[in-house]
Amino acid sequence: MVGRLDAGRLYAALDAQREASGLSWRQLAIEAGVSASLVSRMGNGHRPDLDGFIALVQWLGMPAETFMVWPEGLRDKRPRPSLEAQLAPLLRAEEDLGEDDQQHVLDVVGMTMRHLRAKNNKNKKTGD
Predict the structure, then answer these.
(1) C-alpha to C-alpha distance for 115 and 24, rounded to whole angstroms
(2) Quick one: average pLDDT of 72-89?
(3) For 28-39, how does the pLDDT look when each residue is reduced to its tens digit (9 = 90+)?
(4) What is the pLDDT of residue 75?
(5) Using an 8 Å Cβ cutoff, are 14 and 28 in contact?
(6) From CA 122, how far away is CA 35, in angstroms rounded?
(7) Residue 84 is inside which H or E element, if any?
(8) Residue 92's Cα: distance from chain center in Å?
(9) Residue 39 CB: number of other CB atoms within 10 A?
(10) Which residues does 36 contact at the CB level (< 8 Å), separation at least 6?
């Protein structure tokens, strides 16, 4: 497995926020939209399922990546996601844009980025 979830870190963050909010674990589960048994299992070292993880991270209001552990050096070797990949979820979340409009923006950005990459590669080859 390339990346891993640090369930202990997630549980600690949940516990800190729960205490700061004056909530019981059952109340936290209700607010987050997960079962009380899920948070109980996490307290015993189990990992949440994907839907549970998403619900808990959203409840915390923290980026999911906060709870990811990468094998040493791997994170630094990964290529950055393309601008198109970074924009896609942002556009999908934009309620004022229909699916056709979202795709149009992605197509325009993709075409522009391909042009810029080709131009940069040409400049690197010619030394400009």
Answers:
(1) 55
(2) 72
(3) 999 999 999 999
(4) 58
(5) yes
(6) 56
(7) helix 83-93
(8) 14
(9) 21
(10) 25, 26, 29, 30
Span between the terminal Cα atoms of the chain, in Å: 42
- 104 vs 36: CA distance, rounded Å: 43
Cα within 13 Å of Cα(30), Cβ side? 5
CA 128 to CA 85: how far, in whole Å? 29
Residue 1: pLDDT above 60?
Answer: no
What are the Cα distances from residue 38, in Å, to 41, 65, 92, 109, 122?
Answer: 5, 20, 29, 41, 54
Q: Which amino acid is at 10?
A: L
How many CB atoms within 10 Å of residue 81?
A: 10
Q: Pairing mode, if any, of strands 4-5 and 68-69?
A: antiparallel
